[in-house]
Structures are given as C-alpha cells and as structure tokens.
Specification:
Blueprint: E1 4-6, H1 8-15, H2 19-30, E2 34-36, H3 38-49, H4 57-70, H5 81-92, E3 97-99, E4 112-114, H6 117-121
Parallel strand pairs: 1-2, 3-4
Amino acid sequence: MRRYLIDTTPLAAFLFNRPAAISLMSPWIRNHEATTSILVYGEIVEYLRNRPYFLTYPIMERYADIRRQLRPPHGPGLIGDVDTLIAATALERNLTLVTSDEDFQRVPGLNVTLISSTELRSAR
C-alpha cells in the first residue's frame, strides 16, 4: 500500500544518495509504500536532461577505434560495450572518467580517476 508521495527535492536527494534521504525513504521504498507524481518525474527529467552526453557519430567512431585497439592480439582485451561507449564519450568530450572500474585503465588515452567502492559507500 502506497503511503508517501515523494516530492522533487527529497527524491533528488535520494537519487544523489544523500544519507538522510536514503535513511528516511529506503524503508518506504523497500515496503512499496512510496510513490511520486508524474509532475515530479517531469521535474527530475528536466533537471537531468541537460546533463548527459548523447551518442553522436564521432562518439560511435571513437567507440569503434577503442574496440579495435583493445581487441587481441593487438590489445589487452575488450571491455563491455556499455563501458566502451562511456569511455568513447569521455574521450570525445575530453573528460576525465571517474569510476570504480579498473578495466577503464586499459583504454588508451583515457584519463581515469579511480575511486574505491568502499569510498563510494562511505557517508562522507
């Protein structure tokens, strides 16, 4: 039974893993007691809409180059397709990839900042 309608600010805090929001809402979500409005969904999507990089032809070409560089016998071995697309996006946009996945270090020319999974789970 739904008991709580989550508004935009608390939902955003939950999505950004803010400890207070996680602590408050996790039991509700686990017990299927929380919901949100389609209007809140729209506000969250609006906020996120200008944030992601969408796939472009240059990113897909970079993806193909990375796959060829990593493919044995010339490279250390492939990484997953989604990870390759993420790496291609970072390279094409000249961004440093912040990740906990060490496989990204095998991508030639990719700037990687590794953060341990333990650090990501800590409540700073």
